[in-house]
Design goal:
This protein is of the alpha+beta class. It has one domain: YgaC/TfoX-N like chaperone (Yope Regulator, Chain: A, 2-Layer Sandwich). It is built from three helices and six strands; from the N terminus they run H-E-E-E-E-H-E-E-H. The protein has a six-stranded antiparallel β-sheet with strand order 1-2-3-4-6-5. The model has no long low-confidence stretch (mean pLDDT 95).
Length: 114
């Protein structure tokens, strides 16, 4: 699931000004990381052309209410679902401030779960 450079650039532009933002290659995609809370923490990832954020029990209901789905992949004859990663809602892609707000919540969820 490689991520297109254009899509990653667009997400990076939306997150411009996000504290201590870095990116790193991640399983054919691109990880979004921040050390804002004192530890380098991955909070998002682009796989294919889908942005996923880290969620936890506190933030997952917000994603589910918007109809977002967890990351899943096929392995042998079954589907593996990772409840830690949910796709980002479409409305975030039209509003950089909203994208940064959800990204910060994802970073906080990632820190809580580490």
């Amino acid at each position: 699931m490689s991520a297109s450079a254009e899509y990653v650039d667009y997400i990076t532009e939306l997150l411009s000004g996000f504290p201590d933002l870095t990116t790193k290659k991640y399983f054919g995609g691109v990880a979004f990381r921040s050390s804002w809370f004192g530890k380098d923490t991955q909070f998002g990832v682009v796989l294919g052309d889908v942005m996923y954020f880290v969620v936890d029990n506190e933030t997952r209901p917000k994603y589910e209410a918007k109809g977002m789905k967890p990351f899943s992949y096929n392995k042998q004859d079954k589907t593996v679902i990772l409840q830690k990663w949910f796709s980002a809602p479409e409305d975030l892609f039209d509003d950089a401030e909203l994208m940064k707000k959800w990204a910060m919540e994802a970073l906080e969820a990632a820190v809580r779960s580490s």
